[in-house]
Amino acid sequence: MNDAKLVLFDIDGTLLLSRGAGRRAMARTLEHMLGRSEGLNGLRMDGMTDPLIFRDAMRAMGYSEAEIAAPLPDIIRHYPGELARELAPSAPGPRPEPLPGVRQVLELLAERPDVVIALLTGNVEPGAWLKLHACRLDHFFTFGAFGNEGPERHKLPAVAVEKAREETGHHFAGQSIVIVGDTPHDIACGQHLGVVAVGTATGRYTPEELRAAGADVVLTGWHPPQEAVELLLGAPPSE
């Protein structure tokens, strides 16, 4: 494992598109718990953790910090049930789907004995597994760091590294860690650990914005999969 890589994947906009299921489930959660949800209107969620999204939505509706703190744990516990309803095959609306090429990339990585793949996501853990299962990607992962384990995203890489040590017995550090995501938050969250940051211009942000945030490599998509894997694991970008 001396030359092994730990590759940590964001979910939304990086591996899959949930087609608004998370936002709809959050709105239903707030309606159920508080009777209102207008704080979500226009709120940018990409790159944020679920707990911070709920906090920002409640702040926008005029709740004080004390009024947010009291119901927030119950709100977060209720949310996965609403998300499960939104992701159910019988639910109306657009279906979540993996991004083109993602499945092939994960298959190639899973075949590598020198690569450990895991999650680093702002989703709370139950929500993360629900989204991955809906796109039939859950079997590629066994662990990760989730939004409920550190509402500030910069705390999550250390959580993922410790879980990887527990899973493999290997301590990953510095450039043996690759963080993959589609937002500047993903790119910046591991910089204090000296990781390699790979931006995927598969969400709302352009390659230029991801490079400006500090991405070492930017992928415009997951095709061709073999080339994407080579870039993830340290090959120089193609001209």
Task: Describe it.
The chain is of the alpha/beta class. It folds into two domains: 150 residues, Rossmann fold, CATH 3.40.50.1000; 67 residues, DNA polymerase, domain 1. The protein contains ten helices and eight strands. The strands form two sheets. It has a six-stranded parallel beta sheet. It has a two-stranded antiparallel ribbon with strand order 2-3. β4, α6 and β5 form a beta-alpha-beta unit. α1 packs across α4, α4 runs parallel beside α6 and α5 crosses α10. The longest helix has 16 residues. The protein is globular, with a radius of gyration of 18 Å. The mean pLDDT is 94.
- Beginning-to-end CA distance, first to last residue: 31 Å
How many domains make up the 3D coordinates?
2
How are the strands ordered across the major sheet?
5-4-1-6-7-8
- Roughly how many Å is the radius of gyration? 18 Å
- In the CATH scheme, the class of the largest domain would be Alpha Beta
Given the C-alpha coordinates, what overall shape results?
Answer: globular
SSE-based structural type: alpha/beta
What is the CATH topology classification name of the largest domain?
Rossmann fold
Number of strand segments: 8
Question: Could you state the order of secondary-structure elements as H and E?
Answer: EEHHHHEHEHEHEHEHEH
Helix content: 40-55%
CATH H-level homologous superfamily name of the largest domain: HAD superfamily/HAD-like
- Which CATH architecture of the largest domain is right? 3-Layer(aba) Sandwich
Number of helices: 10
Strand portion = 5-15%
- The residue-averaged pLDDT reads 94
Poorly predicted regions are none
Largest sheet: 6 strands, parallel
